[in-house]
Each structure stands twice: as C-alpha cells, then as structure tokens.
Amino acid sequence: METWRNLICKANQSFRAGDWKSAESQYLTAMERIDHLYKNYSDNEQILMAWLASYHNLSELYGRLGRVDAQLSHIMQPYHQLKNRLMTQADHEPIYAAILHGINLSCKELYLYQKQQLELSGGVNLKYQQQVFH
Fold it and tell me: N or C: which end of the chain has fewer CB within 10 A?
C-alpha cells in the first residue's frame, strides 16, 4: 500500500505540473499495484478506496487530455464493479458501507463528466439553471 501511496503522490505532482505523460505513467503503475491488492483483499476498505481513487485520478487526467472515452471508461468500470458487488454483498458486513460510499463517489464523478460534456457541446448553459431545493 505504501508503494501505491508514493506513486500516487508523484503522479499528483506531475499532474499539477502539467506533465501529463509522467502523470499517466505513474497513475497506471499505481493502478496495477492497487489492482493486485484489491483482488486479494477486496474486503479491506482502505484498499477499496485507493482502488477507486486510482480510477478517478486517471479519469480526471484523461478529461484534461480530451480523451473522453477513456475518461468515461475510468468512471464506469469501478461503478459497475461496485454495483455488482453491492448486489451480492450482505448488508451487515463492514465493507457494505464502503461499497455504497464508492458508488456514491462514482455517481458524483459521472455527474461532473456529464455536466462537462453538456457545457462543451453547447447543449445546455448550466450557469442559467436554477437550483432546485428538495
């Protein structure tokens, strides 16, 4: 887990500096590391959240690069995996809440992606939408 954390820190630094190739390379390496851990320790909440963060970091990077298919893919892959896990997971197990939280985070990422795509297409000017309170 420490190796993953170090890779993510370096990738984030590259991202902030606009060094997209380095950021992508380090994010992908970090994802390989966390994928291995996630396959072996999928009930570990910390590993699950790190796995999800890896996907969302790559999604953000691909969004900056204009690679919208890759951006969407890195939102939807973890969403579908977590949704499938939720359907088979007993709701009394500790990991259940983490899975729900992960799905919530993925839904927020999907919303931001859709909002960005609508704004870029000129289909909807979101600054004129009124906020709806429930």
Answer: C
Query: Which residue, chain included where needed, has tokens 């590993």?
Result: 47
Q: What's this model's pTM, rounded to 2 decimal places?
A: 0.84
Query: 4-8: long-range contacts (C-beta < 8 A, 24 or more apart)?
Result: 4/30, 4/33, 4/34, 4/37, 4/50, 4/54, 5/50, 7/33, 8/50, 8/53, 8/54, 8/57
The closest alpha carbon to 61, from 16, 91, 106, belongs to 16
Angle between helical axes of 45-64 and 20-40 (0-180°, round to 10): 150
d(Cα 4, Cα 51) in Å, to the nearest integer? Answer: 10
Residues 6+ away with beta carbon under 8 Å from 107: 79
Amino acid (1-letter code) at residue 77: Q
